[in-house]
């Protein structure tokens, strides 16, 4: 894109070229390559920004999401990161700690009223901010709830573990569904810690001790975590949910096609489901004793440490934080806009909109994943442990091994900057 | 000799330079890096300086110990048994996580056996690595002979003058040309537990008697499924090498054998097989090295699961280096793998030397 601009400017003559080159170029990397709608919106924001002032010129490069993090790490090692980075919320502390990012310098009034999950703080400073958040809910059919005589859970009064299991039993006894519950085991990677660690937290455990961030002993393998692990294993052993070898296609369309009675899925999948399942309802996470929780934090914008023109990068991020863009992303790809004002402008999250419930979920139940540079490795360990437990590994041994792996990693990184 | 290599062969060196250069930069240099990193605590990304840690990485990979568990006894001293009559033992975690045994800290049960009333438990610092090691060897031991044998069989079949033989050659060779990632994805669908092709086929062949199986989701079949698919995928490549070996055997030898009245088996045993000697050595070494490098199939099909039943050394090296940002740990695995492959190649060379 930069080259194209240069060509055009030379072609149009020197006078015009001089004014165009006065704009200092700022690179930006984005994770959404391959998604047409997303690319259109982000390009629109960039074009608007470039046209709105004469100092900076943002040039966008998009990467496929699967290889985006690797690209950034490789770029950082090679010393050529762009100014503006797109970063997944829970990964941000890792990059900030590694010295890839610098704190944002944007006016605090700009982020007023933002959902807590959309603001990335590390070491007391704001490093990243997101135009949207994501939320997870239990997809169900109202007709089923009525037929099985189940109470519709609310944010104020979610299902208890007993009610949740009773619902699964009812779904299984009904016989119309292949499985009672689709957890999305086919989605390996960040989905596991994002979607399933809230269950663990609701049982009273966690991936890591959030007091010190230097240990997981007693948190990931304490009594609460063991109870969670036994429950988790039972879901698969008793045939309530399809296991790790679930077909990804079934994950994507199984609930809509009537293979599963309930599905634990994100708001990004809600738009097609609304079209396919007339009476779908999005239920809040059950409460397993320690309060109901869901994960928070999605992709956010930040500034790289090596950026020579942070003013320009911050100016772009400030520009992007407009309700109209938040709303555009939400309408385009179904994400939860970060502010109530933007939510009111969208089709789905406005008052009475079909997905309004997700905004409430994000505001009420969301808990960010552990804010530590060690999260990246801990998340991998956690994923492995959950997959193994689902496949029948001994719960206590598996959680012990996860604790050991997480603590060994923290030790090798000298505590990741936490005083412990 | 030295002068011939350096002086009169200048053009030769010139031609070799691009190849040598690339090998040096992308294979030799990284190898020395791996060796160096495996002795440090190098991370993929970290603001902390890299420190020399000696053999720590190797120790945490290879640490093994055997502990003895005595059965649980009631107050009268009788051995407690569970509902199935099996002897009850204390959990291994009561030892590995106890402050009384700091030397076993962080270790985990690998396997156990019974000795009298006691259970002997082998605990390892890195059970996943141990499983990867065993799986890799198992893979080599099964795939190398089967693949080489099948390839030879196919080569003998297509080494005939028949109308349209090239069609068969092409068909057998086709899987080699297709990217292993694509092949792995396709086989994931074939092995699918619900309505995969294999399940449907077996169920049709047995008139519905065969119950569907989750081939990749079951620890007892996952590695075998990957072996079968890997053998199928690369057999064409080795078939071509066998074929080239077959075609170097002079037809006069076969004519002579025929005149002597040799039957087909004798012809194969005393003419074909001795003529394939060098080809066989090449194929054995190539397959062995390829098998030790098993990665793409695992990455696409199982990610090492279920229950670590398809972990392999290369997959673990990548998983640690990039997934867990532990370059030093990944490097240590690479060095161990290098030593294993090197010693096996040397043994193979020695066993197949000219006598």
What does this 3D model show about the protein?
- The complex is a heterodimer of chains A (420) and B (355).
- By secondary structure, chain A is α+β, with helices and mostly antiparallel strands.
- Chain A is built from 17 helices and 15 strands.
- In chain A, helix 1 packs antiparallel against helix 2 (14-21).
- The longest helix of chain A is centred in the last third of the chain and has 18 residues, at 395-412.
- Chain A is globular, with a radius of gyration of 23 Å.
- Chain B has two domains: 64-124, no CATH class; 128-324, Orthogonal Bundle (MetI-like fold), CATH 1.10.3720.
- In chain B, strands 1-3-2 form a three-stranded antiparallel beta sheet.
- In chain B, a hairpin with a 2-residue loop joins strand 2 (108-115) and strand 3.
Topology:
The complex is a heterodimer of chains A (420) and B (355).
Chain A: H1 2-12, H2 14-21, E1 24-30, H3 36-52, E2 56-62, H4 65-77, E3 84-88, H5 92-97, E4 101-102, E5 119-122, E6 125-129, E7 132-133, E8 136-141, H6 142-147, H7 161-174, E9 179-182, H8 191-203, H9 223-237, H10 248-253, E10 260-266, H11 270-276, E11 280-283, E12 294-296, E13 299-304, H12 310-320, H13 323-333, E14 336-337, H14 340-345, H15 356-365, E15 366-368, H16 375-390, H17 395-412
Parallel strand pairs in A: 1-2, 9-10, 12-15
Antiparallel strand pairs in A: 3-13, 4-13, 5-6, 6-13, 7-14, 8-10, 8-11
Helix pairs in contact in A: 1-2, 3-13, 8-9, 16-17
Chain B: H1 2-6, H2 10-37, H3 56-62, E1 64-69, H4 93-96, E2 108-115, E3 118-124, H5 127-158, H6 165-177, H7 180-190, H8 197-205, H9 219-248, H10 251-260, H11 264-275, H12 277-292, H13 296-301, H14 313-323, H15 327-351
What would you say about this model in short?
Chain A is an alpha+beta fold. Chain A has helices at 2-12, 14-21, 36-52, 65-77, 92-97, 142-147, 161-174, 191-203, 223-237, 248-253, 270-276, 310-320, 323-333, 340-345, 356-365, 375-390, 395-412; strands at 24-30, 56-62, 84-88, 101-102, 119-122, 125-129, 132-133, 136-141, 179-182, 260-266, 280-283, 294-296, 299-304, 336-337, 366-368.
